[in-house]
Design brief:
772 residues, alpha/beta, TIM Barrel, 7-stranded mixed beta sheet, 27 helices, 37% helix
Length: 772
């Protein structure tokens, strides 16, 4: 087999090492356009998991790396003159030049041909006389661009500028330093990669001598801050000197240096396919993940391990390349989701700088969602205990079981059963199903149980199976539910969500075709503008005139009066998901030319009129919340800045909290799904608009709930599907955390089940002797 590797970075070199080691008969050539000792950046961080794979695949390389690594456990976070330390994290780093040197030596010992200062021929040309072409040619991959029609790359350029620099001394931790300057917030990411010893092997033969050790230093800031500070007109030396001045305190007044360092904006690379015939992408050519989670070299080396294993294991090359992508893509996508969360957190850093010191540090440490409250406690219990004390957790009480007050209502814990449409009502009437469904979840321990969207008129229903509050009979039926909750699950609050379907009404129940029109019996729908949800599928709505607006506002107030008589503890106004009030808020669905369209102020006008009318008839001591879609996940839709302004407007009119959801406004949305994927929007609204928020969206574990609360991203967490899977989710979360306090009391008839039932033994005795 003849193999060509385009690019002599760590991923390409290690792929060559492994493939040659597995079969010495392979003829492998690596093309690298730069000299052997040319490299960008300075230090490389590898995880223990990656090192374990290297040790198993090539002990020789692993031994060489082990001799080089700088190891440390602490993360230091410097902000506003205070440094907070969290330990137990475990990092290993070495100089990038030394890593390349080790791989060069290993390639040469195995007989891999290295062609330095030699641009590779085009991949298509190499593919004609090689069995396999590995394109490891980086984020600006010429191979990927040459075959873009096949790989279908998607490249996203982000909003921060950053520069790779170095300091000629070794930090004793992973260091994050925040500088609030007259131009805006800047941050430093720093970590050691060389020990402070003159005899360190990194002095031979490529690495410079570091008698005091050395550290990678990355300086990053928003594009507008970068320009305001004048960095856009600085050369490398000027940038280096100015960065050293900004961060003089953490650097101890010592200088920084560059290595052909330039300011750049991070680009996230995603490809629809990773191979084309016998050409395969590896490392940054296939995918990138933001440096703030230390992933680039790690992912490339892991790609090399997987590719070599698949070539060895599969019967032919097409099967090998397919297996490689199948194995690696889920891992990469997970890493990219974590990296995207981290990247966006730093993009929005200015939103968090006013948080209390420990909460700010906890928020930073858990920003990617890979580090959570529970595993941070394992790493550094003292730090986590201090964050909990600052949060106000009573002794032996997890954050999720601390009470929270909204107006005259005190919730015994921070868990909300999110509104979930059940589609089983008849003529808007809640029945036995709703009693059992909501009653079971109230018994299950949540602090607040929300109804599904309860519609304010027959025409305001989404489907024929939706509940309503437009008759006194419906109000009496709801009273049956609230009485059960208050009498049988004392301490649990129950809330009602009022809404109107707008242009998304008159459709089938979910399991018969979500958002599809009824086969028969459709009723007319209305909206802000005459735009169907799906052109050619859903009906064109009637654009509401003055009379229609007044009628709907009156329907909301009448429903709110009935809700109060029904005994609900909280009322939520549904202004999300493309339903009627949401349709006024989004610029994609509101094309009006009157006082209710155009500017955000005008688009807010009718939803605020409805809110004011409902607040006027809702009991003063009972809270009101508002659910919004903080983004439409579509170009030209609601922006994050719009969402903050919407939240501020409702809060100014008396909303006690904002329930922050996203999307479902337009049919061609492109959501970025993932664990807790909507939480960043709640985080921004809470910390910028300074209003209590409810976070929703793929929050599934009690660990995530604790993490979100402690980080100050939300005040309450709403969970939907987990409560369908387990009505007693909150009680089980308490049991899992050994919590027995007042925040999650078991109903007396259920108390015998408060411990997990015993199961069969699985811990078989281990062998005592090994006989030859």
């Amino acid at each position: 087999m003849r193999i060509a590797v385009i690019g002599g970075g760590p991923g390409g070199l290690y792929a060559a090492v492994l493939l040659k080691r597995l079969d010495p008969a392979r003829e492998i050539t690596v093309w690298e356009r730069n000299a052997p000792d040319d490299t960008f950046g300075f230090g490389v961080v590898l995880s223990d998991e990656t090192l374990g794979g290297i040790e198993h695949a090539d002990p020789t390389v692993h031994r060489s790396l082990q001799r080089e690594f700088v190891r440390w456990d602490d993360i230091d976070i410097g902000h506003r003159g205070q440094t907070l330390t969290s330990g137990g994290h475990g990092f290993a780093a070495l100089g990038r030049r030394r890593l390349l040197e080790i791989l060069h030596e290993r390639c040469e010992s195995l007989g891999v041909r290295l062609r330095f200062r030699t641009p590779a021929p085009p991949a298509a040309e190499l593919a004609a006389d090689h069995d396999l072409v590995i394109a490891a040619d980086g984020v600006h991959s010429a191979t990927r661009e040459a075959h873009a029609d096949v790989f279908e790359p998607h490249v996203t350029t982000h909003r921060c500028r950053y520069i790779w620099l170095a300091a000629d001394f070794a930090f004793d931790s992973f260091r994050f330093e925040i500088a609030e300057t007259e131009h805006g917030v800047m941050q430093l990411h720093g970590y050691p990669f060389s020990r402070p010893s003159p005899d360190h092997p990194s002095t031979r033969p490529f690495g410079p001598r570091y008698p005091f050790g050395a550290s990678t230093v990355i300086v990053e800031m928003r594009e507008e801050v970068w320009r305001a500070a004048g960095f856009d007109t600085c050369d490398e030396q000027q940038s280096t000197e100015r960065c050293a001045k900004v961060f003089a305190e953490v650097l101890g007044g010592r200088p920084l240096r560059g290595n052909s360092s330039t300011w750049t904006a991070f680009r996230t690379v995603v490809n629809e396919r990773w191979s084309h015939g016998n050409i395969v992408l590896l490392g940054d050519a296939a995918h990138t993940a933001h440096f703030s989670i230390g992933s680039g070299t790690k992912l490339a080396v892991e790609d090399a391990l997987a590719l070599a294993a698949c070539v060895e294991e599969q019967p032919d090359l097409p099967a090998a390349l397919a297996a490689y992508e199948t194995e690696r893509r889920p891992v990469v996508e997970s890493t990219q989701r974590a990296a995207a969360a981290s990247l966006r957190w730093f993009e929005e850093l200015a939103v968090h700088t006013d948080q209390p010191p420990r909460q700010f540090a906890f928020n930073l440490l858990t920003r990617s969602r890979r580090v959570t409250h529970d595993n941070l406690r394992l790493r550094d219990a003292a730090f986590t205990d201090a964050v909990e004390r600052d949060f106000g957790c009573p002794p032996d009480t997890p954050p999720m079981f601390t009470p929270f007050r909204l107006r005259g209502l005190t919730l015994r814990n921070r868990v909300v059963v999110s509104p979930m449409d059940m589609y089983v009502a008849e003529d808007g009437m809640p029945g036995d199903f709703h009693l059992v469904h909501l009653g079971a979840r109230a018994l299950g321990g949540a602090g607040l149980v929300m109804t599904e969207m309860v519609c304010v008129s027959p025409e305001g229903r989404i489907t024929p199976g939706c509940t309503g509050l437009y008759t006194s009979e419906q109000a009496a039926a709801w009273r049956r539910v609230t009485d059960f909750v208050h009498h049988r699950a004392p301490g649990t609050a129950i809330g009602v969500q009022l809404g109107h379907s707008g242009r998304k009404g008159s459709t089938r129940v979910m399991w018969e075709g979500i958002d599809q029109p009824l086969a028969t019996g459709n009723w007319p729908v209305s909206a802000a503008s005459p735009l169907p949800y799906r052109p050619g599928v859903n009906q064109v709505p009637h654009a509401l005139d003055r009379t229609g607006l007044d009628e709907i506002r009156q329907q909301f107030t009448a429903a709110a009066r009935r809700a109060a008589r029904s005994g609900f503890d909280l009322l939520e106004l549904h202004c999300a998901h493309g339903y009627l009030l949401s349709g006024f808020l989004s610029p994609l669905t509101n094309m009006r030319q009157d006082a209710y369209g155009g500017s955000l102020e005008n688009r807010l006008r009718f939803p605020l009129e409805v809110f004011d009318a409902v607040r006027g008839v809702w009991p003063e001591d009972r809270p009101m919340t508002v659910r919004i879609s903080a983004t439409d996940w579509a170009d030209g839709g609601t922006t994050a800045q719009d969402a903050v302004a919407v939240a501020r407007a409702f809060a100014a009119h008396g909303a006690d909290a904002i329930d922050v959801s996203t999307g479902q406004v337009v049919a061609d949305e492109r959501p970025e799904y993932g664990r807790s994927y909507q939480t960043p929007y709640a985080d921004r609204i809470r910390n910028e608009a300074h209003v209590p928020v409810i976070a929703v969206g793929a929050i599934s574990s009690w660990d995530d709930v604790n993490s979100i609360l402690l980080a100050g991203r939300a005040d309450l967490c709403a969970l939907a599907r987990p409560h369908l899977y387990d009505p007693n989710w909150t009680l089980h979360a308490a049991a899992d955390q050994n919590y027995t306090g007042d925040g999650a009391p078991w109903p007396l008839p259920y108390r015998a089940g408060s411990r997990k039932p015993p199961t069969g033994r699985t811990d078989a005795p281990k062998p005592r002797l090994t006989l030859g």
